[in-house]
Amino acid sequence: MKRSSLMLPVVLILITAAYLAGGRGGAATIAAPAAAPAPAADDMRRQVERLQQQIKEMEGLVPDQAAVMTHVAYHFTNVYIAVQKGNWPLADFYLSETMNNIKWAVRAKPIRKNAQGQDIDLTGIAQSIENTQFKDLKQAIAARDKEGAEKAYEVTLAACYACHTTSGKPYLKPRKPTEAEVRIINFDPEVATPK
Ligand code: HEC
After folding, report:
1. For residue 149, how far is its CA from the centre of ligand 1 (angstroms)?
2. Is the domain defined by 65-166 classed in CATH 1.20.120.290?
3. Nearest CA to ligand 1 atom 31
């Protein structure tokens, strides 16, 4: 009994203290928006600016679409010479590289303007070439069908060109190559060891 009667004022004091502290706390939080978030917003803005600067710097390091297209041309040239030499695993390798490069090229710039200034969806065009022309060529290479592969190659070149004209670049006319883009690789399928 005695203990609990002593407890009451203590509890009251604690409640009052808590109330006052809460009141001051409340006052502090009302005052806060004016003072506290300002440095945080400043920090955030500086961080965003730093990130924007870093993105700009990285964009300067990434190859642009034309640069990636030179990889497409490099690998696709080698496909033709490998087909002519009847080096099927090498032809298949270079075709896979070509297909990867085309995907990379459209990632670099998925939308372009045509000559009329309309948006062209390059991703869709590339996808359709992969599903038709590249697929036929891949099958002909897998079947070791030289004539079929050469025909499929020509049809693919026409598809390359169709995308160039659609992209407003009709002067980029791919043709059948006369020699490989690489000299250090031996295209002769009969050579057993590197020489
Ligand atoms: C989806 C559209 C598309 C396809 C498919 C495509 N190209 Fe291109 N290609 C372009 C565009 C767009 C450019 C111009 C890029 C630029 O100017 O920034 C280009 C540029 C080029 C260039 C010039 C690169 C240079 O700077 O010298 C070559 C070579 C080329 N392509 C070869 C090919 C070949 C070979 C194929 C087929 C295997 C092909 N392209 C398929 C869109 C395509």
Report:
1. 21
2. yes
3. 69
Which residue's alpha carbon is at the smallest distance from atom 40 of ligand 1? 160
Mean pLDDT, range 45-72, rounded to an integer: 95
All residues at 6 or more sequence positions from 79 whose CB lies less than 8 Å from its CB, including other chains: 91, 94, 95, 98, 137, 153
Measured in Å, residue 67 CA sits from the centre of ligand 1 at 9
Please state the rounded mean pLDDT for residues 89-112: 97
Most confident of 20-24, 129-133, 188-192: 129-133
Alpha-carbon distance of 83 to 153, in angstroms, equals 9
Mean pLDDT within 32-48: 79
Q: Does residue 158 line the site of ligand 1, with CB under 6 A?
A: no
Q: Model's pTM, two decimal places?
A: 0.80
122 pocket-lining for ligand 1 (C-beta < 6 Å): yes
The per-residue DSSP string of 25-78 comes to: HHHHHHHHHHHTHHHHHHHHHHHHHHHHHHHHHHHHHS--HHHHHHHHHHHHHH
List, in order, residues 6 or more apart from 140 with CB less than 8 Å away.
Answer: 148, 149, 151, 152
Return the domain boundaries, the chain. 2-61, 65-166
Q: Is 65 in the pocket of ligand 1 (CB under 6 A)?
A: yes
